[in-house]
Design brief:
The complex is a heterotrimer of chains A (694), B (104) and C (572). Chain B has 104 residues and is mainly alpha-helical. Chain B is 79% helix and 0% strand. In chain C, 70% of the residues lie in helices and 6% in strands. The chains are: A mainly alpha (694), B mainly alpha (104), C mainly alpha (572).
């Protein structure tokens, strides 16, 4: 597979080059910006060729390169590059969106003094993201998983002088870190139980394991009489829940979704690239790649979380007035869909939606960027109004007619209108959900209900956005000196065109999509999962639901379109404008998640840390000081004892001698010779005593 | 008659007693110093006599040499002090010095 | 040349300290350059050893010369040697010593007050730290170990902050207390390790009889007595397995697992282990023996903080690797759970405390406590990845904490104020500084690509793995310790955000004049440190290939010897 590794090396190398050019030619902004964009365009070609080769080639994943990274005794970790259809198509998605975003940023960021740095960060992000996609090792995946988070920190906080941006960057990283701890736990379990991080070796080892009634049998010895080590299966759940936590952090699932709306503080193209299309999808990608590490129990929880997130995100999008916030909540909601799909076992449907969503959501964000740019530059009151507030827009249909078309394409795709890519992937997910719900459990029915409700709500909030921005008769744009430049327009147009359904399937029936067929099914499943849907099952098991799901969802979309046409014809009827209404309040505050986070997580943590500090200063250090005081007291007592008794006895002897001397000295013969006489006499007495008495 | 150890010891004891008597009885400080010298020499005789009976190591003789050196040093310092005292008080009478000048 | 290479590491700084004492006090430039020469030589020499060393061999280079011996009559003869050695266990730390001491000299470039005494003491400190890492004779080690306190005491006490006398005395007494615990065990251990060659020469044994079995047997038969033997306490002799010929442990003594000697129901060996452990834990420092550290750091000047955090703490960890575990493997396994618990507590508790700090230096000090917790956890796990990770953490934290204290020092140099809340938006005023500070904080929170990540992930993996490999640590310990990663991210990023980002704010407007970006000297300190953390984060094999050779045999011996000791324990 010589050609493939060359392709991947060049794909990564182009971005490494883009990153390393920064210190050398970063000063001359124009040169660096254009060379970086050129490099990313080249990498798009490389990704496209790679995709084509893999599409034509064998379907099994292969490890192209593997080298030992670190080893310490029995512990060794290799790094490697693997490629399969999943990876190649994901890389293509990343490369397309990244290339579009770089072209877009060329003029969007043209006025920013630090735009060279911005492009360097973009290169760094794409490099990390592509490395994540190609990594053949769970630890390697984690490394790049953290690095894309770091890139996200860099880019959210790109305008670091804005306090809100700095705050959002910090929040995003810390919330992601919570998820990363889950990842670390999963890593620990995988190493301890499976003994390797390599994708292929894990698959090989896991395929030999068995799960029986709460016990997990790990192969210890192979051969005709295999031996197994019996481990409590809850360890396996631990790994699954750990990874799920990681996914919840990265892919902004309830309750770790709070960072994504704040992340909109970053430049809009960044939101398109990182916080809509690629990085947030990394969580979903992780589940796709390591699907066999998720036990049925974990997948059930995943489905519940996905459904809740889809619903809550859509609901929160209702009452936002910031155009980027609406899109952010929409992203949360759509990511919830993907996670829901994976949770019910509709593996391929989840990935399908990831791909379609990447294009139309990136298109929407870039379109929003154009709109914000336009509003900021084409109003008389540019200083007074917030250019991101949709209440300050309206009538842009006439002002930006070309953008309007492509923005509408993306919007319709997100709404799930037949003929668009979003429709196909959404149908696939709904079919998967219904197949699971068809088992008859009321809980699954509730999840299915949430999924369908979200279809309705998606249409409503997008219609609201559309009518606020593009409709409206009042024509407030006094001077239009803005023509959609090629650099801004072409990326939106390309992404808009990519949102049309025929790229993926000529029929409105998703099951005919070449993409799903080529994607195939997960390599391995953890034991006998009830709801693992493969493409063949979609068409067989799912057939009974398929037809009426299609009608139901089309019906829902139609109902919602008609309703929104009535509601939003006059924006004053918008319930979000009644700021005291509970519905608006709950939605505008995103279920008060930020407040709950602040009061339930952040403040208690700070309180506990202050308590720890108090404990440290007042108890532990006080004990040390007390020990010191104790020693001083003991020493004082010792000193007293020393003065009184030890030194006292010496003094006593001295005084005794002085007394005797005084007695001798006070005699009449108080002269030297007198002393000698006394001394000699005493000595003689002593001698006599010794000789005769003793 | 063999001159044995006893004879030396007796001679030394006599000398020592003489010295002691001089030290106790004489008022002149110079005389007292001479008495001390006598006592030291008495001990030297003892040491040499003992040393004679212990021929291998010559410890006694060696010790006596030390004593002589020290005695010389002592005499030098003692006489120097006496000189100083005389220059200051114009007397070397110990009784006078201790009763009237309170220095010893 | 290479014959005296090791000695030169100790004696060149010492000699230069004397030279500094004789040159005129006014010639400050020469003093600085001499100090740089002395510390730089440690780097050069250790790099030379590193490059020329055969990593397959256990010992790279050694010098052994008799020092003095003490005839204790019936207790035998104690022989003390000038025995210094470089192997995989001390070479990385020696390099770290050179790096951080050199960074410290550069950081003290502007010391003008009593600079002659300062640099002389500094070089004295350098020599004693290097000596401590190199020496293989317990008495020599202890000598250097104690001697470090003296220059450190003066360096904090004279050139420190406002509460310097309290801090320096607290530092001195606290660590001295730990040293005394070590001293007790050292005294107890002497007379248990026989220098077989010297004893054989003294008794007159033939070459075939020159082994410890013969000596032990002869002692039991009464062929010769204890007073005929020569004892020498070399660490290498602790290090060799009991099964091998080269072991030199006297039968029936403290080191031979004599479990008959019990105190309060526990074998005396366990007590000896605990005393040594606490002695080194104070140095490390581990909760609850850590409170001298924040005070010492806050009052010490920047270069001294760098040296203190980067190397002095490492001696605690190094002592555990070098002395405690080889000498008392059975006790180490017996108390692994508790050591692991102390590690977990230190990780979480240190991070919690760091989160609550208002003073930047205190925050970094508590983060050190937290990071040293990983060393304990890794050590307690007794797995390859755990022990190697713990060692990696020693090395990596040396680089990272040096950077962090330098960051604090840069701010303190300009304004003489370290309160986090007094600054905001420094990135706009000092962009280069903000980049390097961000690197330092991200390295500290364990971002992949920096050396801290390798260390922490290896320790966590090892701690969890321990449950299935040797069932020493329960699974929850690793999981709870992993929570420390969140807290580390919280205090690092919160500090970054509060101090460096957002709108510019300075408590006193006059500081704005002082807030110029990094000078070339400060860049020379920070950039190489940042590059080193990156290099060791991306190419971990650089370090692991060296340490592996020392740590793998250690693990093997610990289990083998512990099994033998425990067999004896069961037998009795």
């Amino acid at each position: 597979m010589f050609d493939l590794s060359i392709l991947i090396y060049s794909l990564l190398g182009l971005h490494i080059l883009g990153l390393f050019l920064f210190p050398f030619i970063g000063k001359s902004k124009k040169l660096y910006l254009y060379s970086s964009t050129l490099l990313s365009t080249l990498s798009l070609f490389a990704a496209a060729i790679l995709f084509y080769v893999v599409y034509k080639g064998d379907s099994a994943p292969v490890e192209l390169v593997k080298w030992q990274w670190l080893s310490a005794g029995s512990f060794s970790i290799s790094m490697g590059i693997m490629v399969d259809f999943l990876g190649a198509s994901m890389a293509l998605v990343v490369a397309i969106v990244a290339c579009m975003v770089q072209w877009f940023s060329l003029s969007y960021m043209a006025d920013d003094p630090a735009r060279s740095r911005y492009f360097a960060f973009l290169n760094f992000f794409v490099l990390a993201m592509l490395s994540l996609v190609f990594s053949s090792n769970l630890l390697q995946t984690f490394i790049f998983w953290e690095l894309v988070g770091f890139a996200s920190w860099l880019l959210i906080g790109f305008w670091h002088h804005k306090p809100s941006a700095a705050n959002a960057a910090k929040k995003a990283f810390i919330v992601n870190r919570i998820g990363d701890v889950g990842f670390v736990i999963a890593l620990m379990v995988v190493l301890a139980m499976i003994g390797t991080f390599n994708y292929f070796e894990i698959i090989e080892n896991v395929s030999n394991t068995r799960v029986f009634s709460g016990a997990w049998l790990l192969p210890v010895q192979e051969g005709p009489y295999p031996k197994f080590q019996i481990v409590d299966a809850s360890v396996l759940h631990l790994a699954g829940f750990g990874l799920l936590l990681a996914v919840m952090g990265k892919s902004a699932q309830f309750p770790l979704a709070i960072w994504l709306p704040d992340a909109m503080e970053g430049p809009t193209p960044v939101s398109a690239l990182i916080h809509a299309a690629t990085m947030v999808a990394a969580g979903v990608f992780l589940v796709l790649r390591y699907f066999f590490l998720f036990t049925p129990e974990v997948l059930d929880v995943m489905a519940v979380i996905g459904a809740l997130t889809a619903f809550m995100g859509a609901y929160a999008a209702f009452s936002q007035f910031d155009i980027k916030k609406i899109l952010a909540y929409s992203t949360i909601s759509q990511l919830g869909y993907m996670v829901l799909a994976l949770g019910v076992g509709a593996w391929s449907a989840g990935y399908f939606h990831l791909v379609t969503h990447a294009f139309f959501k990136a298109g929407l964000f870039l379109g929003a960027g154009v709109i914000i740019h336009f509003v900021a530059h084409n109003t008389d009151k540019a200083d007074q109004i917030d250019p991101q507030d949709i209440r300050n827009m309206g009538g842009l249909r006439k002002a930006l007619p070309i953008l309007h078309i492509f923005f509408l394409l993306c919007t319709l795709s997100l709404m799930g209108v037949p003929g668009f890519s979003g429709f196909l992937s959404k149908e696939a997910i709904l079919t998967g959900v219904m197949t699971r719900a068809g088992e008859g459990s009321w809980a699954w029915m509730a999840i299915a209900f949430l999924a369908f409700l979200t279809v309705l709500m998606t249409v409503l909030y997008m219609a609201r956005l559309y009518s606020y921005v593009f409709l409206g008769s009042e024509y407030r744009w006094a001077k239009i000196n803005h023509s959609l430049s090629l650099k801004l327009g072409v990326p939106v147009a390309i992404l808009g065109l990519l949102s049309v359904g025929f790229w993926f399937s000529f029929s409105i029936d998703f099951s005919h999509s070449w993409f799903l067929h080529r994607l195939g099914e997960p390599l391995l499943l953890m034991s006998n999962l009830p709801g693992n849907l493969t493409v063949s099952e979609f068409t067989s098991i799912g057939k009974s639901y398929h037809t009426y799901i299609t009608f139901l969802s089309i019906g829902l979309v139609l109902i919602a379109l008609i309703a929104s046409a009535r509601i939003f014809r006059n924006p004053r009827h918008d319930i979000a404008r009644q700021s005291n209404h509970w519905f608006a309040k709950l939605s505008a505050n995103n279920w008060y998640a930020d407040m709950l986070n602040h009061y339930l997580i952040v403040l208690p943590t700070l309180k506990i840390s202050q308590l720890a500090q108090w404990f440290d200063a007042k108890v532990i250090d006080r004990l040390v000081d007390l020990f010191g005081v104790f020693v001083v007291v003991v020493s004082t007592i010792g000193y007293w004892f020393d003065r009184t008794f030890v030194d006292g006895s010496v003094n006593f002897v001295a005084r005794l001698s002085a007394g005797i001397g005084g007695v001798a000295g006070s005699s009449k013969n108080a002269s030297v010779q007198g002393y000698v006489i006394v001394a000699v006499t005493l000595f003689l007495i002593f001698l006599v005593w010794i000789v005769f008495v003793l | 008659m063999m001159i044995g150890l006893d004879h030396f010891l007796l001679l030394a004891a006599a000398l020592f007693s003489l010295g002691l008597a001089i030290v106790i009885a004489r008022r002149n400080a110079v005389m007292v110093l001479m008495g001390i010298e006598l006592m030291l020499n008495a001990s030297n005789i003892n040491l040499v006599a003992f040393g004679y009976h212990d021929p291998n190591l010559m410890q006694g003789q060696l010790f006596a040499l030390f004593v002589i050196v020290i005695a010389a040093a002592e005499a030098a310092i003692g006489l120097a002090i006496v000189m100083k005292v005389y220059r200051y008080y114009y007397t070397v009478d110990l009784q006078e010095l201790s009763k009237e000048h309170k220095i010893v | 040349m290479s014959q005296f290479l090791l000695s030169s590491i100790i004696f060149l700084p010492l000699f230069l300290a004397l030279v500094i004492l004789v040159i005129p006090a006014k010639n400050q430039a020469l003093q600085r350059i001499l100090a740089l020469l002395g510390t730089g030589w440690i780097i050069i020499a250790s790099v030379i050893i590193w490059l020329t060393a055969d990593t397959q061999a256990g010992i790279y280079l050694y010098e052994l010369a008799p020092w003095f011996s003490l005839d204790l009559n019936t207790l035998g003869t104690l022989k003390f040697d000038y025995f210094i050695l470089a192997d995989g266990l001390n070479l990385p730390l020696l390099l770290l010593t050179g790096i951080s001491l050199t960074a410290g000299v550069l950081a003290s470039w502007k010391v003008r007050e009593k600079s002659k005494a300062y640099f002389a003491l500094y070089l004295l400190l350098a020599a004693s730290i290097a000596g401590c890492f190199l020496s293989m004779d317990f008495l020599l080690f202890f000598l250097f170990f104690e001697f470090m306190l003296l220059p450190m005491y003066f360096l904090i006490g004279i050139w420190g902050g406002p509460r310097r006398s309290y801090a320096s005395i607290k530092f001195f007494l606290y660590t001295l207390f730990g040293s005394i615990l070590i001293l007790i065990v050292m005294v107890a251990m002497y007379g248990n390790v026989v220098d077989v060659d010297a004893s054989a020469a003294k008794i007159g044994l033939t070459e075939s009889q020159t082994n410890i079995e013969y000596v032990n047997k002869g002692l039991a038969n009464g062929d010769f007595e204890k007073k005929d033997l020569v004892f020498a306490n070399h660490f290498v002799n602790l290090n060799t397995s009991l099964n091998e010929q080269s072991t030199q442990v006297l039968a029936g003594g403290l080191l031979d697992g004599n479990v008959e000697n019990r105190f309060m129901g526990r074998p005396l060996r366990y007590w000896a282990f605990l005393l040594l452990l606490i002695g080194f834990l104070i140095k490390l420092p581990a909760v609850p023996f850590h409170t001298w550290l924040p005070d010492a750091h806050v009052e010490a000047s920047t270069p001294i903080s760098i040296v203190l955090a980067a190397i002095l703490l490492k001696i605690g960890g190094y002592g555990l690797f070098r002395i405690v575990y080889p000498a008392f493997p059975d006790a180490a396994l017996h108390y692994a759970w508790w050591v692991g618990l102390l590690g977990v507590i230190a990780i979480i508790y240190g991070a919690m405390n760091a989160l609550a700090q208002k003073d930047l230096k205190k925050l970094v000090a508590y983060s050190s406590v937290s990071h040293m917790g990983f060393v304990l956890l890794g050590l307690a796990s007794f797995t390859s990845e755990g022990l190697n990770g713990a060692y990696y953490q020693l090395f990596s934290h040396g680089l990272i904490s040096a950077m962090l204290f330098m960051v604090a020092g840069v701010i303190y140099d300009r304004t003489h104020d370290r309160l986090i809340e007094n600054y905001a938006g420094l990135a706009s005023l000092m962009p280069k500084f903000a980049v390097l500070a961000s690197i330092a904080f991200f390295a500290s929170l364990g971002l992949p690509g920096f050396s801290g990540f390798i260390a922490e992930i290896m320790v966590l993996l090892g701690a969890f793995h321990s449950n299935s490999v040797n069932s020493l640590l329960p699974m929850w310990m690793a999981i709870v310790a992993a929570l420390g990663l969140i807290l580390a991210a919280a205090y690092c990023l919160w500090t970054l955000q509060r101090m460096f980002f957002g709108e510019v704010f300075l408590r006193k407007e006059i500081w704005r004049l002082e807030m110029v970006d990094l000078s070339r000297r400060e860049m020379i300190i920070l950039v190489p440190l940042a590059l080193l953390t990156l290099v060791f984060g991306i190419f971990p094999s650089l370090l692991l290939s060296v340490t592996e050779g020392a740590i793998e045999p250690l693990i093997k011996q610990v289990f083998e010897n512990a099994a033998m000791f425990n067999a004896k324990l069961d037998g009795q």
